Amino acid sequence: MAYTSSVGFGTATPPTSAPCASSVVISQIYGGGGNSGATYKNDFIELHNRGGTAVNLAGWSVQYASATGTTWLVTNLSGTLAPGGYFLVQQAGGSSGMALPASDATGTTNMSASAGKIALVNATAALSGGCPSGAKILDFVGYGTTATCFKGSGVAPGASSAAQSTQRLAAACTDTGDNKADFATASVAPRNSATMASACACAGDITGNESDQPYELDFCNVQSPVSLTVSASAMTPVIYGRAYEAGVTEAADASVTLKVEVGFGPANINPTTQSGWQFFPATYNAQMGNDDEYKGSFLAPALPGAYRYAYRMTLDGTRWTYCDLNGAGSGAGLSFEVTQLPALTVVP
Question: LTD domain location, by residue (predicted)?
Answer without folding.
Answer: 8-145
